[in-house]
Amino acid sequence: GAQDSCSQQCGELLGTCSCQVTCQSLGICCPDYKEFCLQISPSSGSLMGGKDFLIENTTFNASSMLTCRFKQKIKTSGYVSKDGKAHCISPLLYETGFIPFEVSTDDGLTFPYSGSWLSVHHSKVLDGEKCTLVNETKWQYYGTPNTDGNLTLTWTHQALAATYINIEVWGYHETGDSYSENWLAEWKYLYTLAREIPNTGKFSFIPVPAKGSYSTWDFGILRITPSNYSDGQSNIPSIWSSEHALAWHLGKDFRNDPNAWATAKCIEWDKKEEKLPNFMEEIIDCPCTLAQARADTGRFHTDYGCDIEKGSVCTYHPGAVHCVRAIQASPQYAAGQQCCYDSTGTQILTHDSTGGSTPDRGHDWGSPPFRKPPRIPGFSHWLYDVISFYYCCLWSDNCHVYMKRRSSSDCRTYRPPRAASAFGDPHFLTFDGLNFTFKGQGEYTLVESDLTSLRVQGRTQQVHFPNGTGAQVTGLSAVAMQENNSDVIEVRYSEDLNLEVLLNQKVISFSEQRWMDLKGLFLHSGADQNITVMFSSGSGVEIRGSGGFLSLTVLLPEKFMNHTQGLFGVMNGNIEDEYTFKNKTTMSVHASPQQVFEFGADWAVENGTSLFTYDTELLLNNFFYREKHNASFLPVFFPYEDPADPLVKEMVSLCDSDPFCRFDVLTTRSLQVGNSTRLSHENHKLLVENLKPDMSLLLVISCGWLDHPANGRKNGTNYLLGSTISFICNQDYELTGSKERICRATGAWSGDTPSC
């Protein structure tokens, strides 16, 4: 019957069969599932569009009139190649993330086929997909003193199936009133730089000022297209360059006196900023230390322009070894925060050094729902924060004007998040610092919060001895999570012990993109099987695969205080109420392991609220059709240490006094399991230590920036508790007030303001 077709039904469960992604492993797909629910390759590309992708599973009639439609409105033309495979061209989008698309074979009458395309931030696309501005600095400084000659563009010529190509110049601008409904973003075709040149992968030219009004466009991009398309035609096969400052095509007025031209632009920008709302008041303060910045992974992420793990190449921030960006844009103005640190781990402020961190009116990564300024990924930021840096700091000597509008935030209001972890044959360390071992078998609520409907659930499975028989302990095999109505992320070990990440029940691959902008969260896959989920509330979940088990850390900002429950306890700074049951009764923290087992069992999830994916017979039988807590599985509560056991001696030398490590070696008979438990435990202790540099103070105290006196100077750029700043007057001046001031525990400086 017609109802059993996946035509226009992908993702649905039908009466007699399924069009959901889980249908394949369960063997319950509708017969035409593979025909209508599309698999594509590649599955991602730049938001600028123009990428040709192949539809893998369906063969089309060579005479079909193919139309691809994205988001139900943006149409691009597709084609069927000689081998009968269909292709679509991705469109120019002003957003990142998964974009639904459909395909029509009847020239746009019906769109029965569907799939999704991952649109990616332009600077996160692989280099080979873009054309390269050789010596990019030269392009962006062209016409300033000592920068002239010819410019060269290179590209992978196989990326375009064309013998002759055109090279076009496009400009980006935003029109309408700032922060109003009519504020719109537009990429606009300007002119064709070179026409019908051979597609060799290289082009050199001597730039001349652009004709007419085109030379007023100072921020843009190049596009290479097959020359059989018309100028500026949208959504055709293309290779884009990186976005850049268009110094090389600016008018004669720029070339004659770049400094004067840029100074005028800088002053004009400054006047415009004066009229715009102050976004600085609502952006999050920076972490005080590098250790905190790298530990607070739910709210801050490495800034690729200055990364300590990639050799600290910090072009825009001399003196810094590492910078991070706030992941979420600020609530009202969608502004961004950046924080940079020197080799001692101290935050660098723009007041003291041009290497200081600068906040951004436009968040570099954009922010949901994207599509409109100031939320356009990358490009809004270029318009407000980068091209203005060229005007004031790089093309002229007016950096003080820029730094006045983009001065660093210090860390006075920064509060570190709290961390809770689970690892090994599950050992739990709660937000308030209690630790216990709970070895139930089933699916449990690790933490849930009424504040943002955050839910993190864990599944435990029986551990097996090296010889294959079952041990009387369990380990975390899957973790699933969601906040409000965000996408659902699950990280799990598959039956053949591969680490898998599922997005809304579908296994996803990180082979093309390691970072994904998803609904209500960002997802990052780091090196060595590290998965980080960053929810829009600032809560973060880190999951690592180690030795067949998962270890997990949840980081929650201070606003979650008194708003959590589950196995990770009630986050409120009070350890006494950690064992709180669903019905709000509590149990003593000195409870026996058997009582703790009952507490854990109380937090079993139900099928109605489970976030897990049950896409194999094994999962259905063991977890879906069964009780969520397996009451018949009784674990070992007190493992026996037999002095004659040869493993005990090795255990002592491996674990030393770590009780979790010893427990796991004895119960699993595996030193490898014990070792990964020991490392997870160390990591957690280090994380807690880094987040709270001074345990007696719970937060780092900063007294705020101090200026030097007029006609004098100061020594010291550290403004944290206990630091001393001293002052010296220039020759022939005398100092009144304090010669040195110390940052006190009250958050105020000692002494009086000095003057010379």
Description:
There is one protein chain. This protein is α+β, with helices and mostly antiparallel strands. It has five domains: 38-120, Sandwich (Immunoglobulin-like), CATH 2.60.40; 127-256, Immunoglobulin-like (Sandwich), CATH 2.60.40; 258-405, no CATH class; 418-638, Protein Transport Mog1p, Chain A; 701-755, Complement Module, domain 1 (Ribbon), CATH 2.10.70. Helices cover 17% and strands 27% of the residues. It is built from 13 helices and 37 strands. It has an eight-stranded antiparallel sheet with strand order 23-22-21-34-33-32-31-30, with helices on one face. The chain has a six-stranded antiparallel sheet with strand order 24-25-26-27-28-29, with no helix packed on it. Strands 2-9-8-4-5 form a five-stranded mixed sheet, with no helix packed on it. Helix 7 (379-394) packs antiparallel against helix 8. The longest helix has 21 residues, at 671-691. It is flat.
Number of helices: 13
The count of strands amounts to 37
CATH superfamily of the largest domain: Mog1/PsbP, alpha/beta/alpha sandwich
- Intertermini distance: 92 Å
Tally of domains: 5
Main beta sheet: strand number and arrangement? Answer: 8 strands, antiparallel
CATH top level class name of the largest domain: Alpha Beta
What is the beta-strand fraction? 25-35%
CATH topology of the largest domain: Protein Transport Mog1p, Chain A
The overall average pLDDT, rounded, is 91
Radius of gyration: 29 Å
Annotated CATH architecture of the largest domain: 3-Layer(aba) Sandwich
Main sheet strand line-up: 23-22-21-34-33-32-31-30
Specify the structural class: alpha+beta
Name the helicity range: 10-25%
Shape: flat
Poorly predicted ranges: 694-698
Keywords: Disulfide bond, Membrane, Sushi, Transmembrane, Transmembrane helix
Protein name: Sushi domain-containing protein 2
GO cellular component, one term: membrane
Domain SMB: 2-41
